[in-house]
Amino acid sequence: xxxxxxxxxxxxxxxxxxxxxxxxxxxxYFTLKGQxxxxxEAFKECIGVxxxxxxxxxxxxxxxxxxxxxxxxxxxxxxxxxDLTEEGRLEETLxxxxxxxxxxxxxxxxxxxxxxxxxxxxVKKKKPHPLLEKVEFESIKEGLCVQxxxxxxxxxxxxxxxxxxxxxxxNNLEIKTLAHKEIYLSDFRKxxxxxxxxxxxxxVNPQL
Length: 208
Hints:
Protein name: GyrI-like small molecule binding domain-containing protein
Domain GyrI-like small molecule binding: 18-198
Number of strands: 7
Organism: Romboutsia lituseburensis DSM 797
InterPro entries: GyrI-like, GyrI-like_CCH_Lin2189-like, Reg_factor_effector_dom_sf
Pfam family, one: GyrI-like
Distance between the termini: 45 Å
């Protein structure tokens, strides 16, 4: 039976439309850093490279390669950590050209450096891209977070963030960094803006 993260890991990926506190353990990811407006071809290429590697691992058995511990699974969703440059933080309104991001796709626990090396070789042959050299494979532990489901356009996210900030104040939680995480449950190329589903997440510390 195929492992479905939407069913098996709801606490991490399918929150409600109200803030909740959650502990996120250490997971493995392919990551790729970038800067600038996400409404560009360069941003789409970053996404494409991460998905190419993720699907190369997912489809390995069909290429005659079965890593130790492999199981059938659904590829995890695209995630991104978003921040602004120093200049961007000084501006009164959001300047998307000053955005700094780290895109990522989680990988199953069986994925090792050796599996990643094989995936790189597969993608370099089938779909070579200069960004492949900049992809990192890393383990990230987010720890204690406040998260909430945002339904609607990305530009309307401040509405949801204000609810999350209020929740943090009421529960004596300190937001650790101005950066935040987004997890994209919808394909923005195929989904109407009003129906986009995005998990928004802040790293937090309890205040004594």
